[in-house]
Amino acid sequence: MASSRDIETTYSTAEFVEKLRRLADALEKGERFDIQIAGERIYVPVRARYTIEHERDADGEEIEFQITWDKA
Fold first, then answer.
1. Does residue 17 sit within a domain?
2. 42 φ/ψ angles, rounded to the nearest 5 degrees
3. Do the domain assignments include residue 8?
4. Residue 6 falls inside a structural domain
């Protein structure tokens, strides 16, 4: 059984753009998306759900691009 994990990684603009491009390419082709985060390879299945979240408070704003899926 996989252990719980909550990782946040900061990327340069160029790295972030490259990851978004690869994600968009995989989505357009109907293929799974593979990404490595903090040393672990993650395989995002085609059945994943994609959401965009916006949060605002007194300190600032945040946009989160979220990809979720159920374990198969």
1. yes
2. -115, 135
3. no
4. no
